[in-house]
Amino acid sequence: MRKWRVFGGFVRQYQVDIDPAKLRAYNLSVSEVVSSLQRSNSEVGGKLLEISDAEYFVRGQGYIHSKQDIENTVIRTASNGVPIMMQQIATVQLGGDIRRGTMDRDGKGESVGGIIVMRSGENARAVIERVKQKIKDITPGLPEGVEISASYDRSTLIEAAVGTLERALIEAAIVVAIIVGIFLLHWRSIVRIIIELPIAVLMSFILMYIFGITSNIMSLGGIILAVGVIVDSSIVLVENSYRNIAHAIEQKGHLTPDEYKRISIDSAKQVGRAIFFSDLIILVSFLPVFLLTGQEGKMFKPLAFTKTFALFSSGIVVITLIPVLMTMLMRGNFKPEDSNFITRFFKWLYAPVIHWVLKWRKTTIAINVIALLSTIPMIMNTGSEFMPPLDEGSILYMPVTLPNTATPEVNRILQEQDRIIKTVPEVHHILGKAGRAETATDNAPVSMIETIIMLKPKEEWRPGIRKKDIIAELDKKLQIPGVRNGFTQPIINRINMLSTGVRTDIGFKIYGDNLDTLEGYAVKAEEILKTVPGAADVVADRAQRGYYLDISVKREAAARYGVKIADVQDIIETAIGGQNLSVILDGRMRFPMRMRFARDSRESIEELERLIVPIPSRGASASMSAGASSGAGGGMSAGASGSASGGMGSTGGMNSATPVRGVSNSAGAGDAASSSSLLSSGQANAQAASQTFVPLSYLADIRVVNGPSMINSEHGSLRAVVFMNARGRDMGGVVEDAQKAISEKLKLPAGYSVEWSGQYEHKIRADRTIKILMPVVFLLIFVLLYFTLKDYVEAGVVMLSVPFALIGGMYMIYALGYNFSIAVWVGFIALYGVAVETGVVMVVYLHEALDKRLLAVQRGERGALTLQDIYDAAVEGSVLRLRPKLMTVLTAMIGLVPVMWATGTGADVMKPLTAPMIGGLLTSAVHVLVVTPVLFVIMKERALKKGTLEVSKMAGWMGH
Predict the structure, then answer these.
(1) Using the 8-state DSSP alphabet, how is residue 881 labeled?
(2) What is the 3-state secondary structure (H, E, C) of 626-670?
(3) DSSP conformational letter for 876
(4) What DSSP state is assigned to residue 385?
(5) What is the model's pLDDT at position 3?
(6) Which of 107, 351, 586, 816 is most buried, by CB atoms within 10 Å?
(7) Amino acid 687: pLDDT
(8) Structure-derived torsion over alpha carbons of residues 852, 854, 858, 859, reported in degrees to the nearest 10
(9) Which element (helix H / strand E) includes 483?
């Protein structure tokens, strides 16, 4: 942990409340009192003494240990030798220091708590476990009746989210294993494929540990996305070997061990190059995710890394282990594909289709193009957002109050709100706080209220109620005058505030150089934005509503009385405001000691005006003479100090324009006896010669003014913010309408500018990055396809699977009601790589079937190729090689289905990521199985007519 922020309760403080009248009666100044308190609480060193060959360290201890020590502190010794002590001019007591934060639990009253701040880069779950262990260790030593309990524990969310993804990962692995099993029905081949799953996943976790990536929603999501793809390479390798061995057994009836081994090696060579480049294409397709920056980069880079780790581990297993197992386990009863009822069923469905599409080619292409064009209206009508909201299982209620609200009033509002919230049946408990912790790094004002609402498990909710219904009910109940409601979630709120300075999903920032103007336009913008459909919790930051009591020193008057500006400000800072002068030690505890004028002398402007300020006697005499010559103060002379002092002891005397000399025999109604007993008349005159007193109103103007409670600046300019959330609509749509409304109705003066911030800021940045990088990635994929197929045209044909993958992905997210978000785009990016891989496998098998015929022609084993031969080769490459294509598509697609049926925490983030992959894999598979053979036949027939048809450049590594 980095630090512990304490909220609520009071800090014990030794309080010295000075009576200004007694201060004047004893002719003392504030600086003398401050000096005596500070010098009476210290320790000095006297170096050391050597006594009897031993060193003795000398310490002069003068610490204050109790309230009585403060009361007996000597301020000054009078000329008659009688000391003036602190208890004679002040009341000393124990109290609470001024606080700027408070905490409440369940509306039952104030409580004391703390927030643990974790160090950046630490494992949250591990830190929480260590904190819980430490709490357990110190619990036996707590005072009786005191206990420490967690009100908000983030580990619950972590464990729930990780648990959801772990279950989905296990279910995905099981589903993939079942698909492989039912298509092959040969346990040795099944073992060779399935063994790659646990090894690749285990290697991925090892790499996660090495690179310091923790198990979280995104990192586990990357492995889930890769589960179906992990076994694709093994499926193609093992299935190709299985087919070739079964074919050889069908021809020869029996194979020797060397023949088994040779066929396995040749089968691996046939598809090895295609497998390598297919995996490389999948890795390259994820390049945009690695290059994301900001918050989106922090969120999705773990997913990109773990998916890459899984594919890398899979590649290592395919290169090393799988070929070995192929030569070792390629034994047993290998049956032709048609002997498998699953394969026969799919061939029975697919064969008529391929014959129909090869006959009606233009119709087939037209249908696919129409299907692609039909997604355009869906794209136009689909909303956009930065990220699908993660249901944290809790609610953060963050209302806005007026900035000048005092701590007692905020505390009352906080407790009243918590009592109302507790009446909702789904609420488990509430932890509310207002203001800031006792630390300089927290700048929250007292008016900032944050209430964490922990909800009960969903099984205990009322039937049919949802989280948004709970928020709506709370919003209806919490209609308190002077309070604007705002609802969000704890973690996302903290992320928003740290990254953009805006505590809501959307922030409208106005920049300028005048705070009053900024607030005026912010309030106007608030009224405009309230009319935008979907805009919720709209409120402008009213920072100019703070109250200030300005005490402005009159320089001419101060100069006339011989008073320094700093001396007056010391009175304001120390005597009025109160200042912690020293620290009192109590064992290992430390408590501040504060000095301040008594409350009854500073609780109103009139009392502040009557506060006395000491001035030098010479300046005072000169001033009095000047006052007398001008007729001010009734012609009082310097010699009338006794009556002047007496006058100052009453309220009416404070209105005199004449300074008051130190102390006389009649120091005031309350102090006459004490002053007479302490000082004789002669001694009083001697003391009075040292200083004189005047009311503060003589030296300063005191007035109440409005001003900013907090000044915010950004980009070198002052800033005002209008906060708002999007509710019931997508964020992108809300901001677009809001931008239009602002541009039409809000006209800013010259020198003022606006900016949209919050999560929308992240969305714009991420969209811009993806738009720049995706064309580059498509170009790289095309180059890799060329290296694989050695033909530009065929590489382009395979690339067509990318837009057709968009069809299913778009239909899927539109049907499920998802918005475009970074999660959806990452899902499409992952889809494109897998779709291209399927296209590569199809083209490889189509060429394999055609190249056999072309090579037979070259060897003179048959006559010239005809159009029917091209047709037959397309059917053979499509229908007879249906099994590996179906297996790769189904493992990648159905392996993601467990995520779609997951209902736990974290599933709401992963579903938009996997939905485009499931739908897109379906339509890209249809495209590959239907359109790719059609395009292949068209190209080869045209080449045959031109006389340019030749064996493909892949034939060399396919082993024909």
Answers:
(1) T
(2) HHHHHCHHHHCCHHHHHHHHHHHCCCHHHHCCCCEECCCCCCCCC
(3) I
(4) -
(5) 75
(6) 107
(7) 43
(8) 20
(9) strand 483-484
- If pLDDT is split at 50, 70 and 90, which confidence band does 56 have? very high
Given a contact cutoff of 8 angstroms between Cβ atoms, the answer to whether 891 and 234 are in contact is no
- Nearest CA to 547 among 402, 719, 723? 402
Find out whether 511 and 748 touch, Cβ atoms under 8 Å.
Answer: no
Going by C-alpha positions, the residue among 153, 151, 169, 290 that lies closest to residue 230 is 169
CB 21 within 8 A of CB 105: no
> Using CA atoms, how far apart are residues 267 and 192, in angstroms rounded to an integer?
15
3-state helix, strand, coil in the chain (%, to 5): 60, 15, 25
Rounded to whole angstroms, the Cα distance separating 547 from 241 reads 83
With vertex at residue 220, the alpha carbon angle to CA 921 and CA 758, rounded to the nearest 5 degrees, is 90
Residues 741, 534: Cα–Cα separation, whole Å: 13
pLDDT tens digits, 726-773: 888 888 899 999 999 999 999 999 889 999 988 888 888 888 888 888
- Write out the two tokens for 394: 């809790």
Classify 428 as helix, strand or coil: strand
Give pLDDT tens digits for 514-554: 888 998 999 999 999 999 999 988 988 887 777 888 999 99
CB 401 within 8 A of CB 482: yes
Angle at 496 between CA 493 and CA 501, to 5 degrees: 115
3-state secondary structure at position 310: helix
Letter for the amino acid at 218?
A: M
Q: What is the mean pLDDT of residues 202-227?
A: 86
Question: When comparing pLDDT for 815 and 160, which is higher?
Answer: 815
Using CA atoms, how far residue 655 sits from 22, 120, 195, 628, 633, in Å, is 19, 61, 97, 15, 9
Q: Alpha-carbon distance 604 to 609, whole Å?
A: 9
CA separation for the pair 933, 937 (Å, rounded):
6
Q: How far is CA 310 from the centre of its chain?
A: 27
Q: pTM here? A: 0.75
Strand, helix or coil for residue 44:
strand
Q: Which of 724, 720, 750, 751 is nearest to 737 (CA)?
A: 724
Query: Residue 646: which residues within 8 A CB-CB, separation 6 or more?
Result: 653, 664, 666, 668
Collapsed DSSP state (helix, strand, coil) of residue 828: helix
- 620 three-state secondary structure: helix
The SS3 of residue 478 is: coil
Q: Is 83 helix (H, G, I), strand (E, B) or coil?
A: strand
Residue 131 · residue 1 · CB < 8 Å: yes
Q: Is the pLDDT of residue 677 over 90?
A: no
Strands 717-726 and 713-714: antiparallel
CB 110 within 8 A of CB 102: yes
Q: And the tokens for 667?
A: 């120091």
Distances (CA, A) of 780 to 273, 391, 798, 799, 832: 17, 37, 13, 11, 12
Across 424-444, b (16+ Cβ under 10 Å) vs e yields bebbebbbbbbbbbeeeebeb
Res 821 pLDDT > 80: yes
Strands 12-18, 589-597: pairing kind = parallel
Q: Which of 529, 456, 481 is nearest to 745 (CA)?
A: 529
pLDDT, the chain, mean: 81
Beta strand extents in 554-607 (DSSP E only): 579-586, 589-597
The residue among 342, 339, 340 whose CA lies nearest residue 890 is 342
Distance of alpha carbon 511 from the chain centroid: 24
Strands 427-435 and 90-96: unpaired
Q: Which parts of 286-340 fold into alpha helices (H)?
A: 287-290, 294-329
pLDDT-derived band of residue 92, with 50, 70 and 90 as boundaries? Answer: very high
Q: In whole angstroms, what is the distance from residue 897 CA to residue 787 CA? A: 33
CA 460 to chain centre: 29
> Mind listing the pLDDT tens digit for each residue in 93-141?
998 888 888 888 888 888 888 888 888 778 888 888 888 888 889 888 8
